[in-house]
Amino acid sequence: MHIGFLPLVLAALLFAPGQKAAQPIAEKTLLGGWLYVSGETEFEQMAFALDGAKRVFHSWLHERPEHLGTWELKGDHLAITIPENPDFNTNAKILSLTAKQLKIQFEGDSKPAVFKRVA
Question: In angstroms, what CA-CA distances link 14 with 3, 4, 10, 19, 21?
Fold first, then answer.
């Protein structure tokens, strides 16, 4: 590569228009059951549902009900509230979400968790 070309490449990379803003998370895509695949999380299985206007969160550990609470989605930020166990309330950032896979970074965890859609 010609040395005079390198500054042009670097300038193009540094001053290129920013990446597109992330697409808003579709609440309807989040709804349903999710099964842990990899990463760091407290949840083995979890589900997001709507009961009228109430957003209901459930989690299961070894096929037993574990937590029941509510959830709120604002942009890519997810807040889970467990009334009977306030110490377990958590916030997370949804890194990616498709109909089949959820990648999420829970507050305080060093690695994101990956979940697959429960069939």
Answer: 18, 17, 6, 12, 18
